[in-house]
C-alpha cells in the first residue's frame, strides 16, 4: 500500500514542525547540542537566508518529515544534507527516501556538485537510506557535533 505523501518547500507555518520532528529523534538517541539549538530555532536565518532549502513531507496536510540542505562550510562541498527527521508514526513508509531524493534533486537544481552529511552509526536505518541514495563514507572533517561518528559524501551527476 502506497501512502500519498506530498513534499513542499518550508514556510514559517512549518517552523514548529521542523524543530519538533528533529528534537524528537535527537533527544531519543542523543542530547541536544548548541548547533542543534541554533539551526532548529532559527531555520530562516541559519538555513534559508544563507541560500539553503528545507523540504517538508506532508500526510493529509500534516508535517510528518523534514530535511534541510544547508550551504556547506567545508571545502569541496556545496551543501550539507542535515536535520532529516521523520515522525515515528510515518517511519518505515518511505518518507525518508522521498525527502532524500527531493533534497538531492534540489541540490542539483541549485548547481551543487557534492553534498556532505554526518550522522551516527547508532542510526542504522538512516545510514542504510543514505547508502541507498548513493552516499559513501569519508573520513576527513572535524565535526561540530559530539554525536557524529560517520561522515558521508555524494557526488552529483546529471543522470
Automatic annotation (TrEMBL):
Pfam families attached to this UniProt entry: Acetyltransf_1 (PF00583)
Q: Which SUPFAM superfamilies match?
A: Acyl-CoA N-acyltransferases (Nat)
Among Gene3D superfamilies, the record links this protein to: 3.40.630.30
> Which part of the chain is the N-acetyltransferase domain?
16-157
Q: Which superkingdom heads the taxonomic lineage of this protein's source? A: Bacteria
What are the entry keywords? Acyltransferase, Transferase
A single MF term (Gene Ontology): acyltransferase activity, transferring groups other than amino-acyl groups
Supply the InterPro entries for this chain.
Acyl_CoA_acyltransferase, Bact_Acetyltransf, GNAT_dom
What protein name does the entry list? GNAT family N-acetyltransferase
User: What is the species of this protein?
Assistant: Flagellimonas lutimaris
Amino acid at each position: 500500500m502506497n501512502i500519498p505523501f506530498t513534499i513542499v518547500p518550508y514556510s514559517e507555518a512549518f517552523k514548529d514542525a521542523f524543530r519538533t520532528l528533529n528534537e524528537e529523534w535527537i533527544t531519543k538517541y542523543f542530547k541536544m547540542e548548541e548547533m542543534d539549538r541554533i539551526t532548529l530555532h532559527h531555520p530562516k536565518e541559519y538555513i534559508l537566508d544563507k541560500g539553503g532549502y528545507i523540504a517538508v513531507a506532508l500526510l493529509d496536510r500534516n508535517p510528518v518529515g523534514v530535511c534541510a540542505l544547508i550551504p556547506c562550510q567545508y571545502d569541496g562541498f556545496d551543501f550539507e544534507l542535515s536535520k532529516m527527521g521523520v515522525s515515528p508514526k510515518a517511519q518505515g513508509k518511505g518518507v525518508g527516501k522521498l525527502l532524500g531524493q527531493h533534497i538531492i534533486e534540489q541540490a542539483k537544481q541549485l548547481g551543487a556538485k557534492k553534498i556532505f552529511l554526518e550522522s551516527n552509526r547508532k542510526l542504522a536505518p538512516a545510514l542504510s537510506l543514505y547508502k541507498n541514495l548513493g552516499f559513501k563514507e569519508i573520513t576527513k572533517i572535524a565535526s561540530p557535533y559530539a554525536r557524529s561518528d560517520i561522515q558521508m559524501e555524494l557526488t552529483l551527476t546529471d543522470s
